[in-house]
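Researcher: Go.
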Amino acid sequence: MIYMIKISDIAAELELSRVTVSAILNDRYQKLGISEKTARRVLAQAETMGYVPNRNALSMRTGRSLTIGMLSSSISEGWGAKILVGALRAIQPTQYSLRVETVHGAEEERGALKRLLESRIEGLYCCNINPAADTDEFFKLTAERYSLAVASTNCSFSFPHARIESDNSNAVMNLMEHLVELGHRQIAHIGGDRSSGVSRERSEAFLRAVEHFNLKTDECPVRFSNWELDQARTTARQLLEFSEPPTAIFCANDTIAACVLQVANDLNIMVPDELTVVGMTNERLSQLTIPSLTTVAIPCEEIGHAGMLALIDLIESKREIATQEITRYPCTPIFRDSSAAARSLLKATR
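Model: Structure:
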């Protein structure tokens, strides 16, 4: 059985009162006139003895749970895992603990939120939750009823809360500028779905770029894959079998781009000699495909870190958000082997 070091153990070792040691370990010593020298002695001794604060005792004393909940539908994805890592890095030096629930779909989202509320969470961080209207209303009413601070990344909630996002608009514009500079004028876009906020942002940014660079909208079609591999492959095949196929395909993420590479290979279309393919998110597979993918690096860990800090700030300040606050983090274009100067792509009958 492991013996847990108590405040009284530290007090006995230093021949100080338990009240003095407790005040120092809970950062209240200055109010009691305890010297910095004594505080340093206690903190050093606590570290030497391996003292770990009892969160349950602290919670009972303060009447707070000191727990933050997190809902994510993307922990199994590389970028979603990085969001979680960033969030954990932000919370580690604080007094809070994190309880994580992985969810898929409205039923799991509602059930997980109820479980988190039962543990009296003080804040909620959501990652990649894109609810239908009724579930969005459920989250909204829950946040209001329990005075719950909320922050999110890659979510499409309609109610006011703190949002920490990548700068999708500028990321898309940078890649489109790259394609246009290479001479591409017939550029297709394969997006995710029509419901998720990040998919809409990227597709809408693509259409704005088409207008900005004076491209013809009928030569720059937008299609959706619902983030499904088979649908992405089917969509890519349909685009590449047009009588005048695109010379470049801009994909909403690297997984969709990898599907396009597979279809191009099946159709004996050379990438990048006959077709340029670009993705987004700089997933690990973007460096493993042949050719390697031109893409955009999104600072997911930094976003997760900032999202958790923003949530803690809301909890501590008890500040109500009157409007939707959005903080966007810049993304970095990464130019690899899948993009090259535009060439005429003839429809192949194979």
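Model: Confidence is low (pLDDT under 50) at residues 345-350.
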